[in-house]
Amino acid sequence: MSTDQAIDATPTATPLAVRFQGWGTAITLVAVWALLIAATGLYRPDFFAHQTVLAIAFTMSIVGVLAIGQGIIGISGGFIDLSQPACLILTSLIAVRLSEAGLPLPLVFVGAVLVGMVWGAFNATIVVLAKLNPVIVTLATNFIGLAALYLVFQLAQVPNGSEIYHMGRASFLGLPVIWWPMLVLIIIVGFLMRYTRYGRRITAVGGNRFAAQARGISLKKTRFATFMAAGGFVGFAAVLFASAAGPFNPSSASTMQLNVIAAVILAGISLAGGRGSFWMLLLSVGFLSTIPTSLVFFGLSSDTQSIFQGILLMIAVAIDGYRARRGTP
Amino acid sequence: MTDTTAASRTLPGHLPHHPLRAALTGSVASIAFTFIAVIAVGLIWIGPKFVSFGNVSIIGSFLIVPLIVGAFSGFALLAGVVDLSIGSIVGISAAIFAWLITHGWGLWPAAGATLSICLVIGGLNALAIVRFGADPIAATLGMLTALRGITWVLCGNQRMIPAFDIDFFTLINQQLFGLPLFFLLAIVLTLIAAVVVTKTRVGRHVQAVGGDDRAAARAGISVRGVRTAALLLSAVGGGLGGMIYVGQLGSAAGATGLGLEFQVYAALMIGGYSILRGGVGNPVGGALGLLAVAGVANILDLGRISPYYVNIIVGLLLLAAVLLDRLRGGDAYE
């Protein structure tokens, strides 16, 4: 285990500039988010209402949990999981069918998460056995998955009055019930990735896979672990999605994909792998989820939402690329 | 030196280079076999109707825009900078062109203005990717989203801009030898692109930059220049595609070109290109990929089978094609 020392050591030895860099991301995100809220509030004081908080929190919950999965793929050097929409719809359908069968809510969660993990294992199998790049593999499985889902169903919805239906409409401490699991999961995963051996091994693989391999970390096992974990988070997000979204069809999740990728990049989780903090996801997801609501208050149509999201994503990746080129982590 | 070459020739499993075998095992050959297989299945299942002028004409008019967009964006793939925003560039080009025509602009000034805007878009892509080193997939995904939003806004509440111009309509939908004129032109364009890629110095520079940018830079090739030019070309292809859609449909809609990038890139990858590493692929292979996918869609359509099977088949073909590319010596992941 002595060869693992450098990877498993606590990050106390990181230079000051590196630690400051992380805070820079956090301060920037908080500042931009606060600016957005202040600007909207000054323009329309009725923005400061409980209704606004609820709208933002609903968007945050699903995007946040999906972003954990996307972040795990990104930080481990798998770049992007483009099959999240297909996996989300598949597991949402599972959640609907399970709750139609009258299963209690915990079992619905277990079922959706397990199916999500199977989906992730399927992706990982192709990546590992055929040695193909995850981007193309997940692009293809998303294609195949969504088409197959269209053959299975056109519209689905959780049964009225079921446990899962009530969960999507209940609130706790003034926020939607489905917001809290997102918060807890991001905090836990952020802790696991930073302070446990497994988390740091995943990050090490993303930073330099061959160096990690030379230190005895199995790349194949890491791929299976990250893809299955990511699939599990998609399955979890699917239950939240199914509970709150109302009727959905196989293409309902396609617009969410971009938000999730943008959130991961804005949080500073490098797509090239190897660095980033999952706690930042709370800020980036919160900021991105505020944009649609703000635009409505500014009287702009929902079409303009994607203009802002797209430009933001471009700026974020340009900064990400510039930092990588400069060599600063 | 002759000793080492002789030694390498006698190695077991290592066959001497032969142009015919290289052609038969190359990426264009495998997509050509796939294409022939698709035609064979069509002939057996649908019958001679499948290759009739009427049916090929229908497939051809659907393929005009994908072929043109594919021929241009193929240069970006070759240079190692994938441009995912092409579908949205087609959309915004159609919307701007239709808007200008309905506001009294002539066809040519409108076309010129539309292409200029597309060049600016390509320039912005190049600024982010080449100047700042942004990841091409993520950056152009952002561009894709932003442009689609602008297209929706331009199309307004009607969700479309009607722009029927009888002269333009007849020009675009002209027939020659029983096939759409622009389909034939798109094939000629593909052949020109293939000659540029394989036979000219410019083409070799593009391949060199995509294959290994550091080696290309050391050989004195301007990596930034080539990549910027490739992204500009890709945007021009999208611009042309959007204007042709306006000619074909007589209007621009908010959803014009939606998802075209996946349709085109899946076919191009089946045809031997790669969206992750540059330097591989050939415009002829890409065009055959588009033809093969369109043939599959047409067979399923004529056979009254759900169109969703097309995407399943495209996905499987895509995986098979990238696997074949890797077995042929492409980069293995890990």
UniProtKB/TrEMBL annotation, chain A:
TM helices/strands, residue ranges: 20-43, 55-80, 107-128, 135-153, 173-193, 224-244, 256-274, 281-300, 306-324
GO MF annotation: an example: transmembrane transporter activity
Protein's cellular compartments: Cell membrane
Gene Ontology CC, one term: plasma membrane
Keyword Repeat: no
Membrane topology: Multi-pass membrane protein
Pfam families associated with the record: BPD_transp_2 (PF02653)
Alphabetical UniProt keywords: Cell membrane, Membrane, Transmembrane, Transmembrane helix
PANTHER family: ABC TRANSPORTER PERMEASE PROTEIN YPHD-RELATED-RELATED, INNER MEMBRANE ABC TRANSPORTER PERMEASE PROTEIN YJFF
Name the UniProt record assigns to this protein: ABC transporter permease
Organism annotation: Devosia insulae DS-56
Upper taxonomic lineage: Bacteria, Pseudomonadati, Pseudomonadota, Alphaproteobacteria, Hyphomicrobiales
TrEMBL record, chain B:
Record keyword Nuclease present: no
Transmembrane segments: 20-46, 58-78, 84-101, 108-130, 136-155, 176-197, 228-246, 258-276, 282-300, 307-324
A Pfam family per the record: BPD_transp_2
Subcellular location: Cell membrane
Main location as per UniProt: membrane
Keywords: Cell membrane, Membrane, Transmembrane, Transmembrane helix
This protein's name: ABC transporter permease
Organism (species): Devosia insulae DS-56
